[in-house]
């Protein structure tokens, strides 16, 4: 018999698992991602019986976290992941680390052995007793809040605290450790007027803005001539795209974006300067050198976003808007980003200023391969152009790590009405397979996953999850039969490519066709074939898979590699070579 949320409200006591499932639904959670197991099965049972939250079973707990992450990034709601104890719990750690580094609100519900078995040789014991390790010490460094629910009644306090910690600045994961017997215990349902829903804006109150800092920043912007804005992921998280556009209009500013924030400003707007940092465009550095002031909006400007720009930044006044202290010195206005943007904009003249001329995001020259190109390969630029030609403007795009990812960040304009997500927090390969599925199921919109074969071999079997749940995801695999970015580093930094990172050819499309007969899978022979397959996927309702062969020796638009090729080929003039030198990442 199905137990509804309204029935739970009228029941004097219920299982803790049933109360938890009802609270997730009341907070607006529509999906719970994870992998089941004995010590979390009661929660799965409760969610199934409740019926308001949909369980999505992943193939691996890392991907379950990234599903919750993709869900959170595209909906701006709390993502939820549930996993069992032992290895299942430990598999959550890298995904939670990404959410922690990228400030993504995720709630992890982690099963534990029954309390009576702790310290007595329990299977998968992580209580810290009798020589076992303590799960709290594992999860604490990758979470904003971590607690063990030692008794059922404590959940009424710990759940709201966990959700508030996940959704307050700086956002990130919260972890609740749930022993099996505690999940099964009866709990007194609290009065609703004493227990507000654990989610939404009320749990993430913004700090008041410093009025003196608002005046200081506004005065600096009014005095400035040419202004370069560099906008980051926090603009999307704060739903502040319109506020950013209005500020840029009043300032007459150029607007660049960080690699993980391509979608926060219209890439086709005349003000758009390009992507900043190691996967970015030379025009951003040119605008920065011309600017009287650089305004950081919603970014701390980490190394991937400022690589190649440090010297120009040192010579430019910097002003920062955002809840966290940036990595570069400047005048800062902290607090809620949307409030800060509106407060500063209100003090600027309402009439727009013209944007000074600039080159725009001109793609970097794509050097040829180090060795002879392989047969029947498609250059990354042509493959990305095919994706651009087919990409719906309301689609979401998730870009994985590696050479293919660098090419997509550099070359592919973000859709006007969808997310363009790159997981640069931890930069883990394979992130996109789960994240794209989570986003697609959450929003019902076509979602593109762009990844290399290395990422596919790590977590690409989540394609099975997409098939099982009929998720509208198009997986585009740039197959160069290599860990090509590793091979590039070996070539430039270690004196030659080792064979370890170069693989025998694999026909990925044929493989997934055999494994998943219902999946629309294509091995694209050229860019035109790729575009046709992508357009066909747009017309369908479920998942699709397209693989295209690329050359592992094609040098991507990645500044650390281009620094070496520029110096080697002596294509830079002496001044720029002396100023920029070699940029190192990793």
Span between termini: 55 Å
Q: Tell me the overall shape.
A: globular
Spatial sequence of strands, sheet with the most strands:
3-2-4-5-7-6
The SS-based structural class is alpha/beta
DSSP strand count: 20
Strand content: 15-25%
DSSP summary: helix tally:
26
Approximate helicity band: 25-40%
- Major sheet: size, sense and barrel closure? 6 strands, parallel
Low-confidence runs (pLDDT<50, min 5 residues)? 201-205, 370-374, 571-580
Mean pLDDT: 91
Radius of gyration: 25 Å
Overview of this protein structure:
The protein is an alpha/beta fold and about 575 residues long. It contains 26 helices and 20 strands. The strands form four sheets. It has a six-stranded parallel sheet, with helices on both faces. Strand 2, helix 3 and strand 3 form a beta-alpha-beta unit. The N and C termini lie far apart (about 55 Å). About 5% of the residues have low confidence.
Question: Key features?
Answer:
about 40% helix, single chain, 20 strands, alpha/beta, 6-stranded parallel β-sheet, globular, about 575 residues
Fold blueprint:
Layout: H1 5-10, E1 13-15, H2 16-26, E2 31-35, H3 41-50, E3 54-57, H4 61-75, E4 79-83, H5 87-90, H6 93-102, E5 106-112, H7 135-139, E6 145-148, H8 155-167, E7 173-179, H9 180-184, E8 186-188, H10 211-223, E9 227-231, H11 234-237, H12 241-251, E10 254-257, E11 272-275, H13 282-290, E12 293-297, H14 303-306, H15 310-314, E13 317-321, E14 331-333, H16 337-346, H17 380-390, E15 396-399, H18 403-411, E16 420-422, H19 431-443, E17 447-452, H20 453-459, H21 463-469, E18 473-479, H22 484-493, H23 508-515, E19 520-524, H24 527-539, E20 544-549, H25 559-569, H26 574-580
Parallel strand pairs: 2-3, 2-4, 4-5, 5-7, 6-7, 9-10, 9-12, 10-11, 12-13, 13-14, 15-16, 15-17, 17-18, 18-20, 19-20
Antiparallel strand pairs: 1-8
Helix pairs in contact: 2-3, 4-6, 4-19, 10-16, 12-16, 17-18, 17-24
